Amino acid sequence: MRSKPLLSLRDVHYVYPNGTPAIRGVSLDVLPGQRVALLGENGSGKTTLARLMVGLVRPSKGSVRLGDVDYETLTTHDIAREVGIVFQNPDHQIFLERVWDEVAFGPRNYGLSPAQVEERVGTALHEFDLWEDRYRLPVALSGGERKSVAFASSFALRPRVLLLDEPTKGMDYGRKRRLATMADRLTAEDRTVFFITHDVDFAYASTERAVVLRRGRVLLEGRTRDVLSRSDLADAGLHEATAPLLLATMRERGISPDSALYREVQRRVEAVS
Amino acid sequence: MSTALDAFRYQEEDTPLHHLDPRAKLLIVASLILFLWLWWDLAVVLLALVPLTVLVLVGRLGRPLVGSLRLYALLGLLLVPLNVLLHSALTFPPGQAEVLMTLTPPETPLLGGLAITREALIFSLLVYARLVLMLVATSVFFLTTSLDDLEALLLSLRVPYFFVLTLSLAFRFLPTLGEEATRIREAQVARGLDLETGGRLRRLWRAGIPLLLPLFVSVLRRSVRLGEAMEARATFAYPTRTNTVDLVVRPGDVGVVVATLAFLALAFVFRVIVGPA
Ligand SMILES: Nc1ncnc2c1ncn2[C@@H]1O[C@H](COP(=O)(O)OP(=O)(O)OP(=O)(O)O)[C@@H](O)[C@H]1O
Ligand SMILES: [Mg+2]
């Protein structure tokens, strides 16, 4: 039996006040416990779609529902408790004098008890390898570290759906892996994580489902393994993921998937992506 | 966003006024303002309306100016009553002017004998009309002069490049600042900052620090980055530089300047010979 969607979008349209039609009829069910990649060329509408899902902007046409409740009846404050987002630029949210307080900002906004706040913040800081830095001044951290602070501060809210806009940009390999582990932890609790990204290899290695946008519409949607090994991805401003491309090339050249060489390449290529 | 500011922000259009040499435009607008400043009567206000209307029509500035009407109405509501009271009491007191309305009987302590006089009312309305016309003249200039033109104008007036660049960067960053503020608001709301419930004051109080601090930090960060990027591209390194817009005088510009000077001269003669209205 299919589980009930956490979020459902029905024929959602969004036109910016200046007349730009950024989203032009998107229908999407967000199922629990999934890691989803949201891909698409620059300007295809990924960030706008994310803002719609968090209720920061409301559809010009169509509907978004949280479970059975229509967004129209909810304030953004209500929605943000269930649907979190971390934007590209961490400097847009950092303002407190210690990393610890920065991460505690969200949980405190929702009136959690001090013990709960303590627990949430501790977990989040460990998750993103920030425990050592917890008393530091966040604005004085490096770019990637500030980004981690922003992730931790949304992670601490334990949203049912967490949207991350360009989370891997400027992050070293270790931090990317940590991001993937964090997503695993959330999906194990039936929460869903969206990675909005141009990093096809990261998406291939770390998500089960992929949605590709093009000019405000869903161009492709399905299992990440299937979507990201298609050869027509260039139409959407994407390239095939390296691992399947490499393996497909080997098969075409007559190297059997059972051969030792093929298996070794597969193992090694999948280990680094 | 704000309609009041829109009346002073450049709007790209293809009209003769937009293409006019910014120096000629400055001359027109400055002489109009000077004209309104020097003389204080109805004839001047009416006379100034003529070229101003022409400018607005030629530059197709009706729509943005209508947007600023609210600003002028507000200004009027604040200024006119205050002026009427002041001038009725000081400049045109009841003994020397016709009383339209008595506000307090003479025996009232401290504020006795307040009234509104005809002359004070007329005078205040005139002052207000002049102010509005000056503002409209100013916005005619800013609505039709692009930043590039403005830069070229200041450079041609021998304003040092350093100041011109600073000014133009400030102008260019204003819209970005608004965009930045929106993003910061969204990022904080997404972390549960409640800006939807409670009274206006309470929301303002809650929003203050979480919005202002990141804005401040990111403006600082941006200026440092911008400064470094500009230095890396040799800004100020050479005493002479090439400009995007170099001002060249064209026949049309000369015509406009001559017409303006003629108008000024005529107005001057008219005013001196005919006398105040
Ligand atoms: N604030 C805005 N006002 C007007 N139009 C906007 C605004 N933000 C985005 N747009 C437009 O909406 C469309 C979608 O933009 P969006 O930011 O959602 O794209 P994106 O897929 O996130 O792109 P990128 O990969 O570059 O981040 C684009 O055409 C963009 O120009
Ligand atoms: Mg984006």
Q: How are the SSEs ordered, and which strands pair?
A:
The complex is a heterodimer of chains A (273) and B (277).
Chain A: E1 7-15, E2 21-30, E3 35-40, H1 46-53, E4 61-66, E5 69-70, H2 76-82, E6 83-86, H3 99-109, H4 114-127, H5 143-155, E7 161-165, H6 173-188, E8 192-196, H7 200-206, E9 209-214, E10 217-223, H8 224-227, H9 242-252, H10 260-272
Parallel strand pairs in A: 3-8, 3-9, 6-7, 7-8
Antiparallel strand pairs in A: 1-2, 1-4, 4-5, 9-10
Helix pairs in contact in A: 3-4, 3-5, 4-5, 9-10
Chain B: H1 3-6, H2 16-19, H3 22-38, H4 42-58, H5 62-67, H6 69-89, E1 99-102, E2 115-117, H7 118-144, H8 147-156, H9 161-189, H10 200-232, H11 251-274
Antiparallel strand pairs in B: 1-2
The structure holds adenosine-5'-triphosphate (ATP) and magnesium ion.
What is the number of helical segments of chain A per DSSP (H or I, 4+ residues)?
A: 10
**Rg of chain A:** 19 Å
Number of extended strands of chain B: 2
Query: From the helix content, strand content and strand pairing of chain B, which structural class follows?
Result: mainly alpha
Range of helix content of chain B: 55-70%
Total strands of chain A: the figure is 10
Residue stretches of chain B low in confidence (pLDDT < 50, at least 5 long) are none
CATH architecture of the largest domain in chain A: 3-Layer(aba) Sandwich
Number of helices of chain B: 11
| CATH class value of the largest domain in chain A | Alpha Beta
Number of domains of chain A: 2
Strand content of chain A: 15-25%
The average pLDDT value of chain B, as a whole number, equals: 80
Largest sheet of chain A: 6 strands, mixed
Tell me the number of structural domains of chain B: 2
> Numbering strands along the chain, what is their spatial order in the largest sheet of chain B?
1-2
- CATH domain fold name of the largest domain in chain A: Rossmann fold
